[in-house]
Design goal:
The chain is mainly alpha-helical. The chain has two helices and two strands; from the N terminus they run ααββ. It has helices spanning 8-36, 49-75; strands at 79-82, 91-94. Strands 1-2 form a two-stranded antiparallel ribbon.
């Protein structure tokens, strides 16, 4: 007696069974991760391009603010802070309050 090699139907059933088992394990892992992490479920999707650009832009602005603040402190006797400005200024001067002298 000779055995026939497995046919395409058997291969398809095997593939479907393997994929179903992988999907089941994936769901279990996601469920376990969401239970173990205090923040809830973990997204497995990649962040979109807009979020990536926004994050890169924020990091670039923060680096520019830091450099401008260091330069201002090194070359001026005034006080400066980093602050978002509607005019595009990276740092703003701070004027100290002087108490009124009592006579």
């Amino acid at each position: 007696m000779t055995t026939n090699p497995p046919g395409p139907a058997f291969q398809n059933k095997t593939r479907v069974a393997i994929l179903a088992e992988l999907d089941k394990k994936k769901r279990q892992l996601i469920q376990n991760q969401s239970m173990n992490t205090p923040g809830g479920s973990i997204s497995l999707s990649r962040p979109n391009l807009k979020e990536f650009r926004d994050n890169a832009e924020q990091q670039h602005i923060a680096a520019q603010q830091k450099a401008a603040l260091q330069h201002a402190h090194a070359h001026s006797s005034g006080f400066f802070i980093t602050q978002d400005s509607s005019f595009g200024n990276l740092i703003l001067p701070v004027l100290p309050r002087l108490e009124a002298a009592e006579s």
